[in-house]
Batch of 2 targets.
Target 1
Amino acid sequence: MTEEFKIPKPLPVPSEDSKPFWDACQKQELLLQKCTDCGFYRFPPSILCPRCMSADFHRIKASGKARIFSYQVTHQAFYPAWETPYAVAIVELDEGPRLHTNITGCKIEDIHIDMPVELVFEKVEEQDWYLPRFKPVSKKTGKSNRK
Ligand SMILES: [Zn+2]
């Protein structure tokens, strides 16, 4: 019997600014920076508010509700650890910021622009690391997502 060699999935390399975000993901929380002076949600994390240049902020836990702003389906594995097909999306959080993620929990062909989605954390098993993903809003938690 031969043991299959598995190439590990690449993981984020947190910077000083993004480390609190990734640390929160490991606790299955999505944290956003919110400017203390003007209330703007900053994402990705940064040292200054892009709207008012303030350095003051606090972190809030995002609702996890979003809509698909854009997406594309990848059919070719550009890295051997990724199984195709998979959907890469930009989702717009109810709080406003947009983030890159993957859509999970549905058929690729069911994904569409403006689809209501909700946060789910997917564990990268072999590396014990949680990544934020989005799945279609379930019937139970149904409503949400602004219009
Ligand atoms: Zn600001």
Note: Residues 35, 37-38, 40, 49, 51-52, 54 surround zinc ion (CB under 6 Å).
Target 2
Amino acid sequence: MTSTQAQTLNLPAGPDTPYDLNTTDESFPKVADYIAEYGDFCLIKPVTRANNTILINDPDAVKAILVKNHENYKKGPGFERVKMLLGNGIIVSDGAFWRKQRRMIQPAFSRKCIDGLAQKMQKANQDWLAKWQEKADNNELINLTADMSELSLEIILRCLFSDDLDKLTQQEGQNPFDVLTQDLARDIQFVMKFRALQSLVQQLINERRESSKRYDDFLEAFMQAVDKDSGEGMSDKEIIDEVMTMIIAGHETGATTLNWAWYLLALHPEEEKKLHDEVDSNVAGDIPTFAEVATLQFTQQVLEETLRLYPPVWLYSRTAIADDTIGGYNIPAGTNIFFAPYFIHRHPQHWDKPEEFNPDHFLPDEVKKRHKFAFIPFSAGPRRCIGDYFSIVEMQIHLGTMAQQFKLELAEQEAVEIDPQVNLRSKTNIMMKLTRR
Ligand code: HEM
């Protein structure tokens, strides 16, 4: 770029000190400071990266980048690390390959398929209900954070492998995927352990190819998927990458949301009471049926309000392929764009009393009035989370089951702090006292 071109570029203001944003607890206060000081657009110079970053906190710009002009943006910094973990699964792939894979996978997330998978979610919650009943009767505290992590893992694994999971557990002496709940660091050691699990998925693929048994799960759907242009299915490597992607993308996101949802409900007994009233009147048996889930409007609002205040994916990025102009600012090719849902979701121009937990933020009339892109926990546009509906159903089934039976109270009164990593975790495990209702 010549100096004359540089002078004519209209770039947002930003700090003098360079910084490379990342999904770490160190970046979180930086993002807060940048937004407080520079507003909706902030230019951050790079330390080791090749190009500038623009941090965006404006819903119109979110819409322009993720929807209107999405073809000009590929996945941004941070995804190289995820690639080590997931190969070329759809959360990290781009371009024609991503399009092909997404098209093949999408049908597995249809309403009809999720209706089928709901049975696995119900079964897992039925088992968990028995555990919690025992704890309640013995006056034992629950480690909510650990429980949500284990339950969420159980659900995604059952939706992928059905009872083949039992076969693997027997063969390995324990559930080999427990590394996800037991090993909390997401460092290179974790990458190695997680990648080693690929051989077990390959084993299941081989065994299923030899068998005539049909399954109602994601692995079956991925093995049967055919690309409509080429008429070809996925290679084993592609199936494995997509399976591993679903585990990583689907496990901790749901677990952290439920962790925060119960925490917020325990702090707001008046909202908890509304939840109890709804599930008492809408759910006939112990576990919500798929049809009943659709009637749990307030339960859904609780979950959306939780996703607003504690979006699991609190920061994500894109890189501009060609020059663009957004919000009147130039975006030269190569610019990294970061969105921070945590902050957009608390933007005072778009939210009334943004710091308060108020599920009424998601009353249908309130949603209609608000900027659609002021709430982006699942991202937006063609790369929106493929598991959005799956996870809402999963979480409604859980809340609908447990809220019928128990009141959850915080065992300790200190406020729980956030631990912003790739997912927005709680800094400490949340311990709860269960009381039978
Ligand atoms: C509360 C639950 C969840 C939240 C908040 C969430 C959030 C997100 C976000 C923000 C993205 C976009 C990331 C980006 O554009 O950089 C995403 C993508 C994705 N999510 Fe989720 N997710 C959740 C649950 C799930 C579940 C349960 C699954 C699978 C069963 C899943 C699978 C995926 C996949 C495969 C992508 C990549 C989609 C693509 O690029 O085409 N997610 N998710």
Note: The longest helix spans residues 236-267.
